[in-house]
Amino acid sequence: MSQVTLRFIKASLIYLLVGVSMGVLMLLWPRWIGVYLPVHAHINLLGWVSMLMFGVSYHILPRFSGKQLYSDMLATLHFWFANIGLIGLSFFWAMQRHKGAGYEAFVILFTLIEAVACYMFVFNMWMTIFGKAKETA
Questions:
Q1: Confidence label for 102 from pLDDT (cuts 50, 70 and 90)
Q2: Which residues 6+ apart lie within 8 Å of 34 measured at CB?
Q3: CA–CA separation, 45 and 109 (whole Å)
Q4: What is the mean pLDDT of residues 2-22?
Q5: For residue 91, what are the CA distances in angstroms to 2, 29, 98, 110, 128?
Q6: Strand, helix or coil at 67?
Q7: Which of 51, 44, 37 is CA-nearest to residue 94?
Q8: Which of 5, 60, 68, 79 is most solvent-facing, going by the fewest CB within 10 Å?
Q9: 49-85: per-residue pLDDT in tens?
């Protein structure tokens, strides 16, 4: 497996542990549910599920299409943007919900970083599957 595939899978497993742990903590301290529930959901969906899907997709889809991945560099950038976006979004969203106003700009910034990461993935997969990428041997 490629390094980017392994990185996404490792990250997804870490996000699974974080998401499950947040769920347990919210069960133990229900007063925090209002603050952390959206973060918990995003850690599980964008972190565990999406990161795993990205990693598996980078491994499987080029093979299914019979082509090489369009851009390894774009996949690496995608990894970093996706993780920085999710961690920043999660942190500042929790701060905003816990402390109140003042963090909206950071939430928006990291949301946009996360969105750009998703656009990178779609572009890289589109070009791999439907573009004129080199055929694998």
A1: confident
A2: 97
A3: 19
A4: 97
A5: 29, 19, 11, 10, 33
A6: strand
A7: 37
A8: 60
A9: 999 999 999 999 999 999 999 999 999 999 999 999 9
136 pLDDT more than 60: no
Out of 52-56, 118-122, 127-131, least confident range: 127-131
Alpha helices in 30-103 (DSSP H): 33-42, 51-65, 72-99
Q: Which amino acid is at 113?
A: I
3-state secondary structure of 15: helix
Token digits of residue 106? 């950071």
Sign for the CA dihedral angle at 88, 45, 54, 121 comes to negative
The 10 Å Cβ neighbour count of residue 31 is 7
Exposed/middle/buried for residue 75 (C-beta within 10 Å: 0-12, 13-18, 19+): buried
Give the CB-side neighbour count of residue 60, counting CA atoms within 13 A.
6
